[in-house]
User: What shape does this take?
Amino acid sequence: METVSKTDSENAGSDLSMGYLNKHGRAWFRTAALTAFALIAFATNSVLCRLALGPGTIDAASFTTIRLVSGALVLLLVNAAGKTGATADRGNWTSALMLFLYAVTFSFAYISLNTGTGALILFASVQATMIIFAIFKGERLGLMGSLGMCAALAGLTYLVFPGLTAPSPSGAALMAVAGISWGIYSLRGRGSRAPVVVTRDNFLRSTPFVLLTGLILLDNLHVTFAGVLFAALSGGLTSAIGYVIWYAALREHSATSAALVQLLVPVLAALGGVVLLSEALTLRLLLSSAMIIGGVALALTQRKNSQRPESAE
Assistant: This one.
């Protein structure tokens, strides 16, 4: 009897272990799949914007307007289909303004930047904004974090330093503003308990800003079917749906791992630009990518055990 009981106990333990592994294996796969989809969506945003604005199929203001309006419409449908119910969380005008500033400077920057360079400046600026915010809130980078931050800044300086392959100064400045705006928008929304609802509200609140911009720049109006299609895909799919998927993935990510995986976006965007737009993969872009991604990764790993900043995507 004792032997049988012992065997039964061992079998039960084995079954529990297998169940635990299967459950967590499925959870890991789900998180990995959601994360991959979100990162591809973010990189595709850069490719779609460059596809539309590079050849001049649409003006930047119209692209931004269609992008944010179509994103708002898709999020309204997602909310209606999902029956999210009542929630205390809502968007706000400050976040909506940051979303607008990100979207409009992002569009105008891609008139003169190639896909990989634009994405690299964008996400370097995003991470720099988050790290500076963390320092302001009392976090300390430490030696390795400080070295990483210096390496990232050196890589960004090298990328935009005047030379034969340096990007447009105005385009780089606009993309830096886009990154800072996106970083602030992200920080403001990180504590949200209803991210889909908050994102929907922010998209809706951003529409007056883009419509006003479109009216101011009405003389530059230029749209084609291809341009409208690229803008609608950017807003409705790779922005609206991409953000919803990213929020779902964030539930299983630590703040550090979430920041680190985003550093893959410039690489994906650069590859998309090379494959789909025949853009050159320059030595300057490769070296600065390594410096920025490696430096920011080093700085962020220093924050692993630090307290998560309060509030703010």
Remarks:
- The longest helix spans residues 2-53.
- The mean pLDDT is 80.
- Residues 41-301 form one domain.
